[in-house]
């Protein structure tokens, strides 16, 4: 009798997210300490204001000019809301660390659930681990420009870091993120709170200051209506094809909002706060991202000079040259450009740290359900900090391996970006499609519920994801050669082919998807 009263009291005091977790068959193992603001900070840091736009801005601008780039952000933001709203509804119903992979298993039903969760888990794992690589590469690229400008620019004998040093910077950033993620989650959450203010304040300063500092600014008609292809630079003369490629910067930037879902087992009131964090992240990035693109584009001094290999930044990083032209033209000094580049580099640092956090949570969740070789190793939590430290270091090791071709191949970033986007965004498609076709009577809604609107929203979201994944498989430069070949289709075909072969030959016999660790009598998913 006393025991039953204690249990009843415990249930009444239980967090709403933990109650739903128990209903789904999982006991609370991770510490549930994160507030809405901390969860939003990590989600926002994973998307990041600068890290998607900055590295691809130059190439996207070259394809079809400023108008296509500027309006492309608006178009992509519009369709991203469909994906975010569909995911927010599912997150509200399934507040688990496994997120997409767990969602896919339960929404697809007992027959198709194991295959759906298998595909989703591996797509998401590939995307997140490659995401660590994109942040490390872009962060190293920014640091390379900082070092060059600090030592005298390309024209004045400045030091342009060679490939071996670039690789060292890439590895160094990855190891730092893994080291920090080995500590308690509260450390990461604290750093990510710094991150959100760093990006909001830093982004506001750059967006407002850069056009004011520039000696001249482009006209509104140039920014919003100028459209021109550059076949001499990209090899692409087809206008529709150029527009499609110019949208890549926006499609690469506007995802990562599922980071909030990975942390729901550690978030208070996750069934409510998880969806709020997802949608808030999209809203903030949509506005700030467009403002950042406009600030860069209005501040262009000489379009053709941005790509000149003899310019001050060696033609390696278009945003760095825009910053240099603005500050050097006004003050005859590159100090302001260096400070702004450091703000941007900080965004890459925080973004890589957050993606490492998310990647480790997905690997931990998949290991907990026996879906990865040597699962018993990767599912272990740090005895003191209660974080999946082994999974953290596995993700870091694979990310470093992805970066090794830097020494010999010139299109590493294109390939890693494509792999990251297709894996990460492709993982969204599985649970969204399952939610669209499932019988409504089998779905137990959370506080955020779409009702009859869920089917058209999920349909638009699914089509947009399929389109996004397709365009990242396209060649980005012509003529195609070993230096310009986008080898992502080959890498993904081999990787996913092996994963599916493993499923057909062996995994389908034993992999059942998420494994419950407590009993439940709940009849709905």
TrEMBL record:
<feature type="transmembrane region" description="Helical">
    <location>
        <begin position="70"/>
        <end position="91"/>
    </location>
</feature>
<dbReference type="InterPro" id="IPR002293">
    <property type="entry name" value="AA/rel_permease1"/>
</dbReference>
<dbReference type="GO" id="GO:0006865">
    <property type="term" value="P:amino acid transport"/>
</dbReference>
<feature type="transmembrane region" description="Helical">
    <location>
        <begin position="196"/>
        <end position="215"/>
    </location>
</feature>
<feature type="transmembrane region" description="Helical">
    <location>
        <begin position="276"/>
        <end position="300"/>
    </location>
</feature>
<feature type="transmembrane region" description="Helical">
    <location>
        <begin position="36"/>
        <end position="58"/>
    </location>
</feature>
<dbReference type="Pfam" id="PF13520">
    <property type="entry name" value="AA_permease_2"/>
</dbReference>
<keyword id="KW-0472">Membrane</keyword>
<dbReference type="GO" id="GO:0022857">
    <property type="term" value="F:transmembrane transporter activity"/>
</dbReference>
<feature type="transmembrane region" description="Helical">
    <location>
        <begin position="387"/>
        <end position="407"/>
    </location>
</feature>
<keyword id="KW-0813">Transport</keyword>
<feature type="transmembrane region" description="Helical">
    <location>
        <begin position="337"/>
        <end position="366"/>
    </location>
</feature>
<feature type="transmembrane region" description="Helical">
    <location>
        <begin position="413"/>
        <end position="437"/>
    </location>
</feature>
<dbReference type="InterPro" id="IPR004840">
    <property type="entry name" value="Amino_acid_permease_CS"/>
</dbReference>
<keyword id="KW-0812">Transmembrane</keyword>
<feature type="transmembrane region" description="Helical">
    <location>
        <begin position="484"/>
        <end position="505"/>
    </location>
</feature>
<keyword id="KW-1133">Transmembrane helix</keyword>
<protein>
    <submittedName>
        <fullName>Amino-acid permease BAT1 homolog</fullName>
    </submittedName>
</protein>
<feature type="transmembrane region" description="Helical">
    <location>
        <begin position="164"/>
        <end position="190"/>
    </location>
</feature>
<dbReference type="GO" id="GO:0016020">
    <property type="term" value="C:membrane"/>
</dbReference>
<feature type="transmembrane region" description="Helical">
    <location>
        <begin position="457"/>
        <end position="478"/>
    </location>
</feature>
